[in-house]
Design a protein that fits this description.
Length: 295
């Protein structure tokens, strides 16, 4: 996988600025799935284009997207509609989104408001992957970013899966030039203690990585770790939602870790996708504009 930052390790508080800078320098073509579009959806795409994060393609019902766009831009039906993004007309964005990605017609994709189950199922089939590994990028209330997993309710159910999450997440952080500090959240029952001990053993002895078991001390984990692993996907999903919807945090999307393609999962309930487009553009394998110019 391409190294995003080959320089010295950066501080976490500088990470978002780095991701934004890389997104602008790559200006990748990003497809976003759209169902039931509203003016806020249009705004997210328009702002991403305005900030030069990416060329954006909205994938969904063209008539509905144009209707939402007229509301956002406050245009009458008889006024000319000129949009900063492209629209691909389809009744099934979950199919078209994945097709665009695997065919190479776009550099990366975000789920947007497309259906989660159908989008991820299509992605698994098209990319020939058995399990989805999503790592959410979470901005805490103090604006400091953390990587967090698992967030899918059927993810992180086995020791092997959690070890894979730690390895993949560690690799992602290193790609971004960040020194990984992995914090494990574990349950206090006997099964939870035994599982945590085995994960720590595998990670330290076999994978030669570092992880700290914070048990149920979530505050300590967030204070001392930049990548936090929840006991399972259900717990992780609840923690993530609590921090974003009730705790004043913000989600930047959840990149699905794959070798060939970049797909950033998003929450329909969050309703804002500009930052997810930024993340997708930064993680894409498109060369930076200055690199293309020199070739």
């Amino acid at each position: 996988m391409e190294e995003i930052n080959k320089e010295t390790e950066i501080e976490m508080e500088k990470l978002i600025g780095l991701i934004e800078k890389i997104a602008v320098s790559k200006h990748a073509t990003i497809a976003m799935g759209v169902r039931d579009p509203d003016p806020e959806t249009v705004k997210c795409a328009a702002v991403a284009v305005e900030k030069k994060y990416a060329n954006v393609i909205l994938v969904g019902d063209k008539a509905e997207i144009e209707k939402a766009s007229r509301i956002y831009y406050k245009l009458r039906e008889d006024e000319v509609l000129s949009l900063p993004f492209q629209i691909i007309d389809t009744a099934v964005p979950e199919d078209e989104l994945v097709s665009l990605l695997v065919s190479g017609e776009v550099d990366a994709a975000i789920r947007g408001t497309a259906k989660a189950s159908d989008s991820l199922s299509n992605l698994k089939k098209a990319c020939h992957i058995n399990k989805i590994h999503r790592i959410a990028i979470l901005l805490a209330k103090d604006e400091n970013p953390h990587f967090f997993a698992p967030v899918g309710i059927d993810e992180g159910t086995t020791i092997e899966d959690k070890v894979e999450f730690i390895c993949l997440g560690t690799h992602l952080l290193k790609r971004l030039g960040v020194a990984p500090h992995v914090g494990l959240i574990s349950t206090p029952d006997e099964a939870g203690r035994l599982e945590a001990a085995e994960i720590v053993r595998i990670i330290t002895e076999e994978k030669k990585l570092h992880v700290v078991d914070y048990k149920l001390d979530l505050e300590e984990a967030f204070e001392h770790s930049n990548y936090i692993l929840a006991p399972n996907g259900i717990t992780g999903n609840l923690i993530f939602r609590g921090l974003t919807f009730l705790g004043g945090g913000d989600g930047l999307g959840a990149p699905i870790l794959m070798d060939r393609h970049v797909f950033v999962d998003t929450s329909r309930s969050a309703g804002h996708y500009t930052k997810a487009i930024m993340v997708a553009s930064a993680l894409s394998k498109k060369k930076k504009i200055e690199e293309e110019s020199s070739n």
